[in-house]
Design goal:
Length: 425
């Protein structure tokens, strides 16, 4: 109890870091009728109750199914924009008006995992069996309260990043185009660069921005280690940033974003032939470029990397008045650990079976620590990559300076967390 009280006090130190959390990694609707598991069977008869759900996307189809299986239950959903969700949830937790279920982008979880105001889901009454059966050990640390084995979040899918590419355009260019063949080819960063050069001659691009190789490398590491020290260092990142420099020097990036209309037009026209997203990205491609149906395929990330980006998690505030019903709701909406993803054999992929691609990535994912510093570090990381891509200074020296600066910036907060949580169990 003392540790939880101290952690709640310590959380106040980091509220400014936690608030305003936003990400451009995941903006589209995740739930489709085809993706639903169906509502979980009710564990008891509950009538004439309301379940309040806040979310950054509309889970309407699932909520309808949930209510249909539970006469007398009303799910009331409030939708927040992606950029507003974290602030709104934190404020509601502070003033006692939080709902029964909160669904957020998993990139925002660092804003919540030191607060000590969320229900532990890893208990017999809630998700203990679910977690044991469906969540691999290498994913556990992402969803636990920092410095504790208490689970504060349930993933609505196991996040996996993959490479989406235009099968037809790679084939026409004489490049490897079958998924396994291309995945092996792109393990070598030199081949990734060469493919970008060949396609650029046709005004076709594999990169939205020069920084993408470094960002993709970071998806496998998170921002901090389990001791809350900056984690994006070493030879792996040196090589990725050097590749970023080559892209910048040779003009091999489109310099457009798929999150705006110009980037989406590039997807439709074929000027952007490769994107790196979570598996959920197939739904976004379908929304943005429906005319390219059947022309996309999936392979693993380049350079033999395994990581994740985007996705959604669900939380139950401690003050929820309907915790059993809330668990039934999130346990039913989660597809985490299911033998086959809704993405598999999708029409945008011409029916490609991608289960083996996601299974390989899940098996090779490194554990990650989520921290209250992530939002602030992500902003510094973005600025750093822009400067590094345009600089002639040794990459290793620049990374060492960034590491020292970030570790110094958060030294006091890190000390408090380590003393009260990680070392104070």
């Amino acid at each position: 109890m003392r540790r939880i009280l101290i952690m709640r006090w310590a959380a106040g130190l980091f509220l400014l870091l936690a608030c305003g959390c936003s990400s451009d990694l995941y903006r589209g609707e995740r739930v489709t009728p085809e993706s639903l598991n169906g509502a979980a069977e009710p564990v008891q008869e509950i009538q004439n109750q309301e379940l309040h759900v806040w979310s950054f996307y509309d889970p309407g189809p699932y909520s309808d199914n949930f209510m249909a299986s539970r006469p007398g239950i009303k799910v009331k959903t409030r939708i927040f924009s992606h950029s507003e969700a974290a602030d709104a949830y934190l404020q509601a937790m502070a003033d006692g008006t939080a709902p029964d279920v909160m669904i957020i982008d998993d990139s925002m979880l660092g804003s919540f995992n030191t607060l000590g105001a969320l229900e532990n889901l890893n208990t017999p009454n809630f998700g203990e069996q679910f977690i044991k059966e469906r969540i691999p050990d290498n994913y556990h640390s992402r969803y636990q309260m920092l410095g504790s084995d208490e689970w504060i979040a349930l993933p609505l899918e196991l996040p996996v990043a993959v490479t989406f590419y235009r099968y037809d355009l790679f084939k026409e260019a004489g490049l490897p185009y079958e998924p396994e063949e291309l995945g092996e080819y792109l393990e070598d960063p030199g081949n990734w660069l060469e493919a970008a050069r060949i396609l650029a001659e046709k005004d076709i691009y594999l990169f939205q921005h020069d920084r993408e190789p470094a960002d993709i490398t970071g998806w496998g590491n998170g921002y901090v280690s389990d001791r809350l020290l900056f984690a994006r260092t070493g030879r792996e990142f040196e090589a990725a940033i050097k590749l970023c420099r080559q892209l910048a020097d040779q003009g091999l990036s489109l310099n457009l974003s798929i999150w705006d209309e110009n980037g989406q037009e590039a997807l439709r026209s074929g000027r952007l032939a490769m994107v790196y997203l979570g598996t959920w990205g197939v739904g976004s491609l379908e929304q943005w470029a429906p005319e390219t149906k059947g022309k996309w395929r999936v392979t693993k990330l380049p350079m033999n990397l395994y990581g994740s980006t985007g996705g959604a998690v669900a939380l139950i505030p401690e003050r929820s008045n309907n915790k059993v019903l809330a668990w039934e709701y999130i346990g039913g909406i989660s597809s985490a650990g299911q033998p086959s993803s809704w993405v598999n054999r999708h029409p945008m992929l011409d029916g490609q079976d991608i289960d083996h691609v996601t299974a390989e990535a899940i098996a090779n994912m490194k554990p990650q620590t989520i921290s209250p510093f992530d939002k602030a570090i992500s902003e510094r990381w973005g600025s750093f990559l822009k400067d590094a891509a345009e600089s002639n200074r040794p990459v290793k020296d620049m990374l060492v300076e960034l590491e020292q600066s970030i570790n110094a910036q958060f030294a006091y907060q890190r000390k408090v967390i380590l003393e009260t949580a990680l070392d104070g169990k």
